[in-house]
Amino acid sequence: MPWRATFAPNAYLNISSDNEVTIIAHRAGATARHMLVKAAGEKWGVEPATCHTENGQVWHKETGKRVNFGDLVSVLQTMEVPAEEVITLKPFSEYQLIGKEVPIYDVKDITRGKAVFGADVDLPDMLYAVIKRSPVVGGKIISYDDKKAKEVQGVKQVIKIDGFGTHPGLNKPLEGLAVIADKTWAAMKGRDALEVVWDHGENKEYQCGTQMEAMIKSTEEDGKVRREKGDFKAALISAKKVFEKTYKAPYYAHSTIEPPTALAHYKSDGGMEIWAPTQHPQWARDSVAEALDMDTAKVTVNVTLLGGGFGRKSKPDFVVEAALLSKATNTPIRVQWTREDDIHHDYYHSHSAQRIKATLDGQGKLSGWNHHTVFPAIGGTSSAEDLHPSDGEMGLGCTDFPYEVPHIRIESHESKAIPG
Questions:
Q1: I need a surface site. Which of 103, 274, 303, 378 has the fewest CB within 10 A?
Q2: Are 195 and 144 in contact (CB under 8 A)?
Q3: Which residues pair with 140 in a beta bridge?
């Protein structure tokens, strides 16, 4: 079956070869260029043919005027997409990047061990921290004894980090005890020596197996219809053959190549500077400002190489930990997660259950497709009220079912963490 690709609104082509994919990509770029040049020409009152695009801008050579592509977006939204026959493709000889070798900017530093990852940044007089976090989300410290931890050579102090409840959100740390030391190894040994009594809270009885059983059972009932075409139930009645299978997947950790780490420096002027392998520096900045009750303008985030993020390092909880500790000690602090921390305290890819039923008609053709899907929604990480997956999640293999089948019914089911 051919793919249907969109290179401009209301313009579709069937793709039958790699060459045709390339042509469509070129035409898509040419369409965008045509519209950008036209918009700029109208803005300046000049002929579009006297304008050209270069490095993300439209230029008018005679006057020297130029405008960023982004500044023309509001105009583009009001324009009609031009007909295919008025689009001129740029000759391959004029392309500056396509078909030419473009070296990776920092490949030499990476291969020679000179690249700067999260744990490679050092500041004068910095200290190191590892954290004994609540083993259960939402857990609280009842009591602790840090005497033995402080006896470990190199350990400077132990600081409590207050948690943020049962649903902490993606940008807030769990409750825990941070061991501050002059070396990472000393901090780790100090953490091992901590004695902590935990109140594990309402999540202490949670069992993923129990939730999985409930999810599988829910797929045997009608769910919330997220896409429907034809009448699957009628196709089921008239089917000559029915195939049915339930699939399940466990929780998966991101297992980042370099475990999360962040260096924070609380400065004498009240500002905070961060060095971290973050995939979302804006969120990290805002979360630090919120946690420390300071203006975001006073927070600077320097992004190091990720060391494998896979989405995990878009969450800034580990960055906030470093910021809290740096302010508390008035010293540059690097928070270092271990591999065990990374696996235990990850934001896991959700477990899920999928029940699929397919029907064949008298000619042996696929006549119906019914997909029941159930898994904790990503929104449920911060809101217990989000029980159904979002449209975006459903579009990652369910509602975007791509095949031409007469009868399609896609359903989702509620999933809530059930203790016990």
A1: 103
A2: yes
A3: 199
Please state, in angstroms and rounded to a whole number, the distance separating the CA atoms of residues 340 and 260: 11
For residues 116 and 277, give the distance between their C-alpha atoms in angstroms, rounded to a whole number: 10
Q: What is the band of 170 on the pLDDT scale with cuts at 50, 70, 90? A: confident
What DSSP element (H or E) covers 353?
Answer: strand 352-360
pLDDT tens, position by position, 96-154: 877 788 788 899 999 999 999 999 999 999 999 999 999 998 899 999 999 999 999 99
Diameter of the chain by CA atoms? 79
What pLDDT digit, counting tens, does each position of 342-384 carry?
999 999 999 999 999 999 999 999 999 999 999 999 888 777 7
Rounded distance between C-alpha atoms, residue 255 and residue 253, angstroms? 5
- Round to whole Å and give the CA distance between 29 and 53: 11
Task: Tell me the C-alpha to C-alpha distance, in Å, between residue 177 and each of 13, 204, 224, 319, 324.
Answer: 58, 19, 43, 16, 12
Q: In what order do the strands lie in the sheet with 333-336?
A: 155-161, 176-181, 127-133, 333-336, 261-266, 272-276, 299-303
**Helices (H), ranges, 293-338:** 317-329
* Crossing angle (nearest 10°) for helices 317-329 and 281-292: 40
d(CA 328, CA 180): 11
What are the strands of the beta sheet with 407-412, ordered from one edge? 224-229, 407-412, 366-374, 352-360, 241-249
Both tokens assigned to 320: 């906030």
